[in-house]
Design brief:
The protein is an all-alpha fold and 77 residues long. It is built from two helices and no strands. Helix 1 runs antiparallel to helix 2. The chain starts with a helix and ends in a 19-residue tail after the last helix.
């Protein structure tokens, strides 16, 4: 598998794992009669997955404006 295809496939697989795996685990536990445990597994799995996605993809982004922008208010002059 080439690097470009892997780079496109990684976010899709990660998102599916974050959404699908906790959901399937919750469903299985609910069907077995453990609704509270199923809800806890879903919340912990989904929350951990979202935090991991944030940590890996969003946190490293440099979301700042350009340095050369004049930030003074034109109405104050």
């Amino acid at each position: 598998m080439d690097a470009d295809r892997r780079a496109k496939l990684a976010p899709v697989l990660a998102a599916l794992a974050v959404i699908v795996l906790p959901g399937l685990a919750s469903f299985a536990l609910d069907e077995a009669g453990y609704q509270t445990v199923g809800s806890a597994v879903w919340a912990i799995g989904y929350g951990t997955g979202i935090l991991m996605l944030w940590y890996v993809w969003i946190r490293p982004l440099d979301i700042t404006g350009p340095e050369s922008v004049d930030r003074s208010d034109p109405d104050e002059e």
